[in-house]
């Protein structure tokens, strides 16, 4: 199944070029009072929501997908985890380009570990990218993203895929500079997740998916997830050895070679096999008028 969030945080079931508005399926979610849970309640109850959505879909309103402003399919992740330098050719690219490494020490992911991005950086493709620090280089990075479906702690790679709720396309936007990676990747709108969440049963092997990105129609990145240094199971094993993963936690798996600058006015199209593609418009952070309507 493919679930999207759109408009005023409505829930949609994607069917080709149309979306069934199955927001009523959210009625199966439990209610909470303060203190609210620190995980995403929808993802934690995805099986129940999916069952209800499947039942009501035939009677639900149908909307053209192209008319909708798509939000991140995950509303409330407890954390967003990034995997730096997780493709060999990207490692070579970073080491060889001073504009990327900016005099920072570059380590392979096994030594560098994973990093955290601010949850406030998360948006959907319909919200666009609002660039900051326009006097510096801002780069696109297309990545396979996956969402944790149930609590995971000290999980082995052999069991890891059982903890995945689904997959999406991730864009990890990066300001180049000397500061810590987490800071430069955490401005508002610098994590784009979408266009929807594809449930894990539809992608039994996330380790062999073509992915790529175009900017204004020009191909910038084109690779396959089989070239990741640490695949999805290994990333879950590694991350869960340091901290507990909760439903709704997002892990973006690193980017292949071909990262390059984007500027206001650019149109980015990111694609991943078995997930789809999403178009994202780039603007300056101060250009509020370009955000569009909810």
Summarize the entry for a quick read.
The chain has helices at residues 41-44, 46-56, 88-96, 98-101, 109-112, 181-184, 232-240; strands at 2-6, 10-15, 18-21, 62-64, 70-71, 80-82, 115-117, 122-123, 129-131, 138-139, 142-148, 164-172, 174-175, 191-199, 210-215, 218-224, 250-252, 267-272, 276-284. With 294 residues, the chain is an alpha+beta fold.
Please give a structural write-up:
With 294 residues, this protein is an alpha+beta fold. It has two domains: 2-71, no CATH class; 80-291, Fumarylacetoacetate hydrolase, domain 2. 15% of the residues lie in helices and 31% in strands. Strands 1, 2, 3, 4, 5, 6, 7, 8, 11, 12, 14 and 17 form a twelve-stranded mixed sheet that branches. A five-stranded mixed sheet has the order 9-19-18-15-16, with no helix packed on it. Strands 10-13 form a two-stranded antiparallel ribbon. The two termini are 24 Å apart. 45% of the residues are buried. Mean pLDDT is 93; it is low at 289-294.
CATH architectural label of the largest domain: Alpha-Beta Complex
* Poorly predicted parts: 289-294
Number of helices: 7
Note the run of SSEs as H and E. Answer: EEEHHEEEHHHEEEEEEEHEEEHEEE
What is the CATH level 1 assignment of the largest domain? Alpha Beta
* β-sheet strand percentage: 25-35%
Radius of gyration, CA atoms, in whole angstroms? 18 Å
The assembly state of the depicted protein chains is single chain
The helix content is 10-25%
Average pLDDT rating: 93
Number of strands: 19
Describe the biggest sheet?
Answer: 12 strands, mixed
Structural class: alpha+beta
Global morphology? globular
Number of domains: 2
| CATH fold group of the largest domain | Fumarylacetoacetate hydrolase, domain 2
